[in-house]
Amino acid sequence: MPTPTPTPNPFRRLPGPLGWALLGLLLFLLPFALLREHSYVTIDDNLDVELTIPYLLTRHHVALDYRATTVVAPIMNGLPRNALRPGLSGTVLLFGLLEPLPAYLLQQALVRLLGLLGMYALLRRHLLPARSERRLAAGLALAWAVLPVYSMYGLTLLGQPWLLHAFLNLRRGAGRWPDWLLIAAFPLWSMFVFVGPFVAVALGTLLLWDVARGRRWSWPVVGGVAVLLGVYLVVEYPLFYSLLVARQFVAHRLEFDLSQLGPQGTMAGLKASAQYFFMGQYHASRFFHGAALLAAGAALAYGPRNRWRREVGVLLLALAGLALFCGFYPQLLTLVQDSIPALRTFNLSRFHFLTPLLWFVVLALSLQVLPQKKLRLALVALQLLIGLGMNTEWLNTMRELVGRPKATEPNYQAYVAPALFAQVGVAVQRLSGQPIAGSRLACLGFPPGIAQLNGFYTLDSYQNNYPLAYKKAFRPLIAGELAKSPLLRSYFDAWGNRCYLFSAELGKNFRVGAFPARFVEDFAFDAVAFRQLGGRYVLSAARLVRPARSGLALRQEFSARNAYWHLYLYEVQL
């Protein structure tokens, strides 16, 4: 047997291109370090929910308590703990050690740093190994590290290069213990429901592709997949136990009907597919794929004709196929969801979490064959600029740094507004005569996750998974408002992750700021059902013009310097 080629250490020369890339990442992160609580943190699907979950799991000491009777008291009258993310996670560890904002900023820095190093290792070992390509690899690694991502998902996306690097080493037969360690560590800081099954399918497809081309079946890769899924099985124990052994509760997701949430038809599917192909999906890093497409086009025009065409052609076809599948997925699901109800609960279109890495592989393979050095560097620079230009979290933080913030995009301190909510807490304790934990409230015009971050116990919440029985118990509170708005009715009935107080006059505006002041003329609220659910107070970012008609009485209003909100506290009157 031939002696395996020793694996080079891609980090042996830190000074030079990789050192400059690390310096570039440091400069990227510097505004967050300087501004701290005045930094902008992505709000939608992030600050309004994701920071709250690990914070509450750790503060209430239930992160690793997977008993069926364990609940997280501040959420929805006691949300079953096993409805939330697992506790065996790097994210939960950081939030257990630090306050939410420092934990978030440190997580972002670590995730982007590891993403940069992982992409550099992948490129130098497998895609751009020549010494003359170090600058290209370092530039692409930096471009990868600054992509717009949800860093609360840990290494789910930016950590994928490490995983691909390890599996390609196993596929070559040159796998060593670090490769197995990388595979085993990945589930400890990533989200199974976003990438786990899809990575397994992708690797299985790669193995079948190898066999079809006459290569030997790679048992090390099979073993690596087994290790990956085995560790996920341990990390996601509550999820697998619920799926395979005993279901703890019937999830609200069983009533999902995606066909009601968006346009249907061929043109709608093609439009969505084009969005996936050229831009991607916002949870999985939305950025324009123009640099990769330009590089592939230039390589076709100027590069040598060899197996490169086949490799990149297959990747582009795969990306186009995935885009079509994701674009038409809601309509495909409509055809089968009644006969296979379980498909409602699991989003098979999450293959899109793999596509950013595939686009970077297309870009790297194209750079391999382009003869013009300046053109190759220009394409890397273009990708870097695209990533920076579409990273709204970084751009809004830069606007804060130069003193030109967007009025509709508040920074962390303004949005979480601890001083403002402290006033509310004092008022609630004075009115109720008991600690905050003894009073249940609901929020109108702003996400209840912010109230939860400030120590309040809310009946409403934004959750990907919660009991269907609770959704049905909550609906009477807002039935009057849902009757006014078909849009809100389908939003709640066919989806319902946002189990919120709704107002037809506010629509889906869950960011009602202090300026300009907003008023709700007629709030069709069932105060009796609210009281039966345990609620006592409604905290609103909009003023109710006729609160008595809703069974409510205004107790106090609150404002604070630099807070994004002006809040009104109403108490149920029966």
From TrEMBL:
The chain crosses the membrane at residues 18-35, 104-123, 135-160, 180-209, 221-240, 284-302, 314-333, 353-370, 377-395. It comes from the Bacteria. Pfam families: DUF6044 (PF19510). InterPro entries: DUF6044. Keywords: Membrane, Transmembrane, Transmembrane helix. This is Glycosyltransferase RgtA/B/C/D-like domain-containing protein. It comes from Hymenobacter elongatus.
